[in-house]
Structures are given as C-alpha cells and as structure tokens.
UniProtKB/TrEMBL annotation:
Catalysed reactions listed for this entry: RX + glutathione = an S-substituted glutathione + a halide anion + H(+)
Residue span(s) of domain GST C-terminal: 102-225
Enzyme class: transferase
Family matches, as InterPro entries: Glutathione-S-Trfase_C-like, Glutathione-S-Trfase_C_sf, Glutathione_S-Trfase, Glutathione_S-Trfase_N, GST_C, Thioredoxin-like_sf
SUPFAM superfamilies to which the protein is assigned, alphabetical: GST C-terminal domain-like, Thioredoxin-like
Protein name: glutathione transferase
Domain GST N-terminal stretches: 15-96
Protein source organism: Culicoides sonorensis (Biting midge)
Keywords noted in UniProt: Transferase
Subunit architecture: Homodimer.
UniProt record similarity statement: Belongs to the GST superfamily. Theta family.
E.C. number: 2.5.1.18
Amino acid sequence: MEEPPISITIIGDNMATILYYHPLSPACRSVLILARLLDIEFDLRSINVLEKEHLKQEFVSINPQHVIPTIDDHGFILWESRVILTYLCSAFAKEDTLYPKNIRDRALVDQRLQFDLSTLYRRMEDYIQPTMTYGAYLDEKKKLKITEALGWLNTMLNDKKWVATDNMTLADISLCITVNQIQAFGIDISIHSNVNDWMQRCKTELEPHGFEEIVNASAESVAGFFRSKLKQ
C-alpha cells in the first residue's frame, strides 16, 4: 500500500510529544487531524505494522500491547486513539468545544466515541479483515451488520447537525473517519440521509485542516489494497 504524504509536524524535535503511528491506520488519522485542529507539533515515529515493526523490543517496551497510535508526552505513555484524543484536548485545547467540560455533553461525546470503537469500527473490521489478511470471501451478513450500525448513527443524527452536541466534537471526528473508510470500501451510505448530510458537514469543517491529505487519501490507499485482495 502506498503511503500518502503527511506534512503535519516537525520531525525530531525533542521538545515535542512523540507520536508512534502509521498514516494508513484509521485510528492514527484521527490523532493527526486533531493535531492540525489544535496546532500540536508531534515528533513522528512511523511504525510499519505490515513489516512487524510494532513487535520490535524497543516499541514493546514502551507499549506492551504494541498497538498504534501511541504517544509519549515527555514520559507519559498513552495508547488507544480515542483516549489519546480526549487527553490531547484536555491538555492542549484552548476551548472546550471539541471535548466539552459540561458533564452531560462530555458523557454524550464519550458514548459516541465508544459506539464508534465497540460497534461501528468493530463491525467494519470484522467485515474486511478476513479478506485483507487471508483473501477470504466477503460475508454479506457482516456487511448487513455495518448497515445496521449506520442506521443507529442515522437515528442519533435525527434533527441534529452533529452527533453529540450543537458543535463538532471529537465524536464527529472519530466517527467520520470510520464512515469515510466504510465508504472507501464501497459501502453506500446514501440510504442513511442524516449520515450522508453529516458527512458532508464533517468534510467541509475538516478540509482546511487536511481532510483530503490525512484522511481521504489514506482511506483510498487501504481500500485499494482491499480491492486487490478481492481479485485473488
């Protein structure tokens, strides 16, 4: 898979928070796009999972689960992308729009983030990973599970512009990256009118911050690899 160029940070600045990442990872894309929104400079350390670089001892000693993204904020180690998003907002955001301080608004953002992690993203992974890894035939029942989850997201967006509050939040960023990847895999979201309209709003909001470069180009690269496996 060809890696899209990412021109987001200063490399090798020992004063910057270190981000262990790979640009093709959807989980890493959310952290990269948030860095643009918050003007965070990372010291980028690329970890190529396909080459098993995540299993090298120097990385495992930092993160025993050896997953990306992982950050090292001057000795504070953290992984799991959605937790990293909330940490970065708490540490670096000048306003609380993306991750509100109001406990009920924050609870809604957290719930939507968990919906992304445990339901929508998980169902996408369940559908495509057997093909990506083994060249297995696609399971249409698993595709229907994605459609079901998109339907739930569509309901969450009834009479709303954004998934949690009246403004774009971390939940919108995380979920739109998942939905963008689902679209790149060829799954039609147009039957979910609320989701379709919301995705257009997300793209409009994030385009000045590198949506095409960071999110869409990577999604298309992953989808291209997926399609190549389908031909085998």
